[in-house]
Design brief:
By secondary structure, the protein is of the alpha/beta class. The chain has one domain: Rossmann fold, CATH 3.40.50. 29% of the residues lie in helices and 27% in strands. It has two helices and three strands. The protein has a three-stranded parallel β-sheet with strand order 2-1-3, with helices on one face. The radius of gyration is 11 Å and the shape is globular. The relative contact order is 0.30.
């Protein structure tokens, strides 16, 4: 089973590292890369899990 992963904050240092790790993993698929200004609602149905590497305040407001 392949797990579809979305990374929020994908252009940051840690987000970039997470994207690289997901792309290298045989059982993971990078379903979405989101950053500031992107619509988080666009993730609906696109990913099984979202990894958020933005600022903690942004996570709480979403």
């Amino acid at each position: 089973m392949t797990i579809r992963v979305a990374v929020i904050g994908a252009q940051g240092r840690m987000g970039t590292t997470v994207c690289e790790a997901v792309e290298a993993a045989p059982d993971l698929e990078l379903a979405a890369r989101l950053d500031a200004g992107d619509d988080v609602a666009s993730l609906a149905g696109a990913a099984d899990v979202a990894v958020d590497f933005t600022h903690p305040d942004a996570t709480e407001s979403n």
